[in-house]
Amino acid sequence: MFSRSALSRGAQLAARRQGCSQLAQRRAYAAATSSAPSALTYDTTEVAGIKVAARDSHGPTTKLAVVAKAGTRYQPVPGLTVGLEEFAFKNTQKRTALRIVREAELLGGQLLAYHTREALVLEASFLREDIPYFTELLAEVISETKYTTFEFHEDVERVLKVKQAKLAHDVSALALDSAHSVAFHRGLGSPLYPTSSAPLKKLNEHTIAAYASAAYTKPNIALIGDGATTTALHKWTQQFFKHVPASKPESIKFYTEPTTYHGGETRISHTGGNSLVIAFPGSSFNAFKPEVAVLAALLGGQPNVKWSPGFTLLSKAASSTGVAASGTNLAYSDAGLLAIQITGAADSVRQAGAEAVKALKGIAEGTVSKEDLTKAIAKAKFDALEGSQSGVSTLLSAGSGIIHTGKPFQIVETVQSINGVTADKLKATAKSLIDGKASVAAVGDLHALPFAEELGLKV
Fold first, then answer.
1. What does residue 121 show for φ and ψ, rounded to 5 degrees?
2. What is the pTM (predicted TM-score) of this model?
3. What does the pLDDT look like over 24-35, one tens digit per residue?
4. For residue 51, what is the DSSP state?
5. Contact yes or no for 439/459 (Cβ under 8 A)
6. How far is CA 76 from the centre of its chain?
7. What's the rounded Cα separation, in Å, for the pair 356 and 227?
C-alpha cells in the first residue's frame, strides 16, 4: 500500500508536470496564432485553372471538397441549388450510383453534399492513401454526371418534397429564412430550401443540368484538401480536373447583384411552435468586424460549463424564461447578419425577446463589466480557432473565402483583430446597431409574440 504522504507528493508532482505541460501548450498555441503554421493555414495556388487550397495535419484521414459558387443566392429560379445537391454522386458517364456507393464503402470513405446561401459543397472523407480515387470521383461528379429524367422524378423531386414538408414544420428555420428575406430581399434573402408554396414549374432535369454547366466551371469552384499534402493534391488535380469546363454558357445567368441591407419586419402564424429572430447588419468575409464577433460571443446563449447558466447575456435570459436562445454572426461574402434567435413558449419568447433587446441596449450604454468583456473576447477567439480546425465548417469557410475573395479565411488575422477589441469599440458597435434598422421575424402565436416596436426596435 502507498502511504498518504507518498500519494500527496505524487499528486503534487503530477500537478507541477501538468502545469508545465499546460504552459507549454499555451505557448505553442500563442506561437501558432502569431506565426501561422501549416496546421492553421492553407497553401493556395492555381492548378489546371482551378483554385486549390491544401493543408496537412499529418493525420491518417483526409477531407476533400469541391466548393462551388452556386448557393441559393445565385440561382436564377428556386430549387436549382437543391436539385444540383441531390444529383451529386448519382449516375455518371463512367459509374452508376450503386458502383459509387459500393466503391466508397469498400475504401471506408464517406460522401456528402450540402449547400448554403452562397456555396454548394461536394465533400469526401477517406483514408489518406486513397486520395487518387476520391479526387477522380469528385472531378467525375462535377463534369460527367447524367441528369436523367427517372432520377429526377424518383430521387431528386421526391427528396425535395420531403425536405419542404420538414421545413414547413420547423419554426426556427422559417423564422431565420424570413429574417434573411426582410434583411436582404433578393440574393441572400432567398430561402435555403424552397417553401411548399414556391412555384417550381421550371425545375426539372434539364434546367438543373444547365445550372450545373454554369456552376461547375473552373473559375467558379475551389478544391479544398484538409489532411493532404500540397504535392499529392496538385498532382491528382492536374490529372483529373483538366477536363472541367473553363467557362460557363452565356445563356445561363446567375443572380449577381451586390447585397444591400434593408431591414424590416415579418410575421407568420404557425401552430407548430414559436420562434423570434432579431437581426442586425453583421460582419462579412470581405470586411471582418472583430467587435461583432465579440458581441456575438457576449450575447451567446449556450453555457460553456455544465450546471451553470453561463456568463452570456442570452443564456441568463434563457435560464430565467425556459427558452432556447442564441446569438450568432452569420457571415457571407459581402454582408453579414448578427442574429438573435429565441424559441419556446410564446409568452416566454416575448419575455426573453424584451430581455435580449434590453441587454443589447445595456451594452450600448457601456454597462458591460471588464470581466464579462474579457470572457467574451476569450470565447470569440476560442470559437474562431475551434472553427479553423479540421471539420465541415473549415472546408466551407476556406472554399467560400477563395471563390468569393480569392483567399481563404485568415484565422491568424482574425484572432489578432479580436484581441484589439475594447469596451469603447464594443459600446460604439452596439449603439450603431440599436440606432439603425433591425430585421425582425416572428413565427408562431402572433397574438402573444411581440412586434418590433413593442421591443423598442426600429424597422
1. -120, 130
2. 0.88
3. 444 444 444 444
4. E
5. yes
6. 22
7. 41
